[in-house]
Amino acid sequence: MSRDGASTSSAAAPLTDWRRLHGDRFAGARALVTGGAGFIGSHLCEALVALGARVVVLDSLATGKRQNLAHLPAGSAEFIDGSVTDAAAVSRAVAGCRYVFHQAAAVSVFHSVADPGLFHEVNGRGTINVLDAARAAGVSRVMFAASSSAYGDSEVLPKVETMPPLPKSPYAATKVYGEVLCRAYSGSYGLDTAPLRYFNIFGPRQAPDSAYAAAIAAFAKAVLSGRRPVVYGDGEQSRDFTFVHNAVHANLLAARREQPIRGEPINVACGERTTLNELLRQMLEILDRRDLQPVYEPARAGDVRHSLADLSKARAVLSYETIVDFRPGLAATHQW
After folding, report:
1. 295-297 and 242-243: which strand pairing?
2. 28-335 has which fold?
């Protein structure tokens, strides 16, 4: 086991012992996970179930999949088929909940450039619906899936939460809007909120067109199919790739914090950056397919050049530390 109960040696065994990390803090608590059938949401559900929480999932299955929850014990999670854009469905899902983990979103920078209106409706109106329902239901805290895309293409590294938001895409703009809504609801209504800025989350059950770490999922799909992976740009762009259990851990730490967070954004990452070229080198090595060298295509609109998180605030506010590092996380993802 590595620090705080995470395993870095065997991908066959569970990578993270959630009980060791969080004890009985969530036992019996009713918790809603919007987008719970999606990538990050399903991992959150898995951890909450392991911790004895009563889990409610709200998901329209637009991008999520029921099979992402199929491995959970029968009856351990209540599933509601609905969208966050449906205020009535959100209210039903939130009823009686102590915590809300708002992961539902329209994803993909590329798709947001093509259809900004959809992203405004799902990520903007949907977040308002969640916050309104949580306020009415007396929820203790809402954890919001914010994004490192808020920082845009600033050349300053690492990214610190006090930097001004500079979104480069409609997707990023809606995520910044969600953060601002969280802060506003905390200030206006006393609903405590925690926007967590995810940095390039990856791991099992991630779709190849994911907004968070499309590179890893897309590269793996290509290589496992015997095709040369496509890199957009020169491959020297870098990312703070973060295994999904770290994002789950940050959400749980935020939920159980005794002091209010008041909508203050907090980075969630590993604090290390890897270029796409280096990522591919490691992936081709792990999969023993060094013959499949990448194809380079022009850079895509809306993509940022470099990303690296400062974790000082996460450590100070949440006592957060990385529990699964990049290499073991990558190995577990490839095994999946």
Report:
1. unpaired
2. Rossmann fold (3.40.50)
